[in-house]
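Q: Can I borrow your eye for a moment on a structure tokenisation matter? Would you mind producing a protein record, from residues through to fold? Write it directly below this note and I will take it from there.
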Amino acid sequence: MRTGEQDDPLDPEDDPADVEADRRVLQWGSVANPNTADGELQNMHAFAQAARNATGWRRTVARLAAWSGLLLITAYVLAALVVAIRHG
């Protein structure tokens, strides 16, 4: 691998082991810390994948949970705006 330049993981001159290591680094790990933004994004992605692949009552519960979360966030933002306008 050349030094001092931007490494391209798909560069054919790179060592195959280095290319595979670069690909692994570019992907999210299988276990992410849920206290970080990457961990939260990975958890949301896993939930979305599971909800998309679910069938029957599990899909209904997953959709209900997702819509409930969106409605709660919307209600919180609207309540915060009302309080800010009234007391602002």
User: Anything to note?
Assistant: The chain has a mean pLDDT of 77. The helical segments are 16-26, 37-53, 57-87. The CA atoms of residues 34 and 40 lie 5 Å apart.
